[in-house]
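In the previous chapter we treated chains in isolation. Here, by contrast, the input contains four separate entities that must be folded as one system, with a combined length of 504 residues.
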Amino acid sequence: MNTVISKNNKLITKTAAFEKESHLSYFNIAVSVDCVIFGYDNDDLKVLLIKSDLEEYAGLYSLLGDLVRPDEDLESASYRILKQRTGLENVYLEQVQTFGEVDRHPSGRVITVAYYSLIDIQHHDLQVNENELGWHSVKSIERLAFDHKQILDTCLQRLRNRIVNEPIVFHLLPEKFTLRELQKVYEAILDAPLDRRNFRKKIAMKDWLTDLRELETDKPHRPGRLYALKQEYKSPPVIHSPQRASGNQSRR
Amino acid sequence: MNTVISKNNKLITKTAAFEKESHLSYFNIAVSVDCVIFGYDNDDLKVLLIKSDLEEYAGLYSLLGDLVRPDEDLESASYRILKQRTGLENVYLEQVQTFGEVDRHPSGRVITVAYYSLIDIQHHDLQVNENELGWHSVKSIERLAFDHKQILDTCLQRLRNRIVNEPIVFHLLPEKFTLRELQKVYEAILDAPLDRRNFRKKIAMKDWLTDLRELETDKPHRPGRLYALKQEYKSPPVIHSPQRASGNQSRR
DNA sequence: TCAAAAGTGTTTTGTGTACACCCATGC
DNA sequence: GCATGGGTGTACACAAAACACTTTTGA
């Protein structure tokens, strides 16, 4: 934005300071971030929710979010929430969409920037159950506080689109995993069964994995090979969620 | 729609009221929308820009944007800008991403929600040139005020992804058009040449068009057939930009 | 020896891509 | 009759999808 149109439509050059003064009255919209924190456990895609503390939504759960502070970036706010709630620092985070309907929040005008995040549910040291914070099966969720059901649906759809071409589901898994485990993650996210041979072929083509030449243990059946994501794809978390083209472009 | 919540609104419980009070100091982030308004003319993708009126960015152009008012939705703000600047009301609009770095705006903390829009450049009745408002070839743009170059790039990437599967480029064209004109729009957006026969085959497969059984006129060569987008795809503008799956899903 | 899952290939179908010739029109 | 773009089909390569049997392990 540059600009408010002056009444007489003249081009007025002004300093930023002046502009700030003249628009102080607009500075009364709050900005929050809401994080859809996905985890995977027991062949099931989960999301981290907390009991809403607003009476308007008594009994309903909501996503984890907080107001953005004036001196913090949107991503920083999301990482702050993730750290607070899960104790994790290096997580995958992607901005999805901003929800800003006038009446979406009963406390006043709050627009919220939605992020989703993928974490290894086994691996965090979070304070689940404190404040009725806990994991919920995504499929079973029917209502949430605010417009959070819509936000969840939007983020889930984005996740489904992303996993096809981007090596990100690995954030949900431990370091070492079998192809069966990987397939089950995909099936849980897509909520659809996949053909085993075709799945393995497709994953092999992506060339994302290293064969660790180890076998899983303590399974009551033939053990599977263990794989890990190749180092080059273990990128640091995405700081500024980029647009990704649907094909063809370079990889860092 | 309710607007700003009054201080003594009964619906606000202690908790909500307390939350608002305790966070009043956070209510000083401004929210803006910025619109990347695309047009198509002379085989070239254009974007509508205005000379920045901030001294910090003297001489640079910027996107069209404005602060969001406390009582207006994000989309409403975008439509307001579009109406103001182009006179058009029923335009295609899609939310893309929100940019919120602390220091992205010299006037203070302003986070901005980026939208892109597609309009028929011939058809609007806009006040171009007033305030140095005008169309610029997207390819030629090297710098913009603020982070607007990044916003433009992000929106362009989104547009490129969308046009493959969604019948939206038609918003850039007049009602009737030939397949050559359509192909040129795709080439301009994708910035790549396309094979004519393959292009026609692909468009035919989409089944988006009606053959009007008319020919273009006044061309110094064999006239092409005129087509129009099928009525069922002439959807009203997208109010709340949805997530679209990348494949496989049903078509209305 | 049984239960459970691992591992593996071939065929068919559809899609993407490369490529060349004749046709209709205005000038 | 020539310049300009309109209109069309085929062959190949590759990816997606359907589909079944043998192997390995622990209990």
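Residues 195, 197-198, 201-202, 205, 215, 218-223 of chain A lie near DNA strand D (CB under 10 Å from a C1'). Residues 169-233 of chain A form a domain with the Arc Repressor Mutant, subunit A fold (CATH 1.10.10.10). Compare these points with the single-chain example from earlier in the chapter.
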